[in-house]
Amino acid sequence: MSNESSTLPAAVLTTSDQDFVRAETRLVPVPFVPEVSLQMADDAIALWERTESVRGEIGMPPPFWAFAWAGGVAVARYVLDHPELVRGRTVLDLAAGSGLVGIAAALRGAQSVRAAEIDAYAVAAIGVNAEANGVRVDAAFEDLLDGDGGPAEVVLAGDVFYERAMAARFLPFLERAQARGAVVIVGDPGRAYLPRERFTSVAVYEVPVVADLEDAALKATTVWQLTPAARAS
Fold first, then answer.
1. Which residues contact 197 (CB under 8 A, 6 or more apart)?
2. Rounded to two decimals, what is the model's pTM?
3. Could you report the per-residue pLDDT of 133-154, keeping only the tens digit for each?
């Protein structure tokens, strides 16, 4: 399988991004995952507008990196409770957002953790958050979805099936990772485009979420393991 990735323009990254993350968010423990603290925002819309103002761009992606989303929280909880999944292994945190999942893996003894994102602010937030939690997570400003995630032995992803086009890219990537031998774990709070027939449930949690971002204050969130294609029904 190919390990090629698409490296995004380095010029998008600026040395002030981490300062921005610190200035516009607060370091607080994550509900349901208190072992980890993250730089999180109080108001998604205000922060979104602020990022566009600072960059001088309209139509920037929402600041997913400034919140703990249910899928990522569930995967992080699962990793913290099942350290044997990651201990001594190389781990990829895909579409990492804040870096929550990768930080959990690092806290539980992963040999190395790489966190991939296509948002420069997210890459900055991952660095800030990893430092705050006293762990090393290598943040990659890359689109990896044309490859197979190698050489990571464990591929973790939280909440990546919320859009049809996104799901259409993520599932083949995850299948390639699983086919080369990686353990693939995803978290999902009931998004429409998760192909449930390809996964096996390994845990279900009631995850507290930001009510303004979701349709409830608690989301039943499942942690799934990708099933080998030969066994899929």
1. 232, 233
2. 0.90
3. 999 999 999 999 999 999 999 9
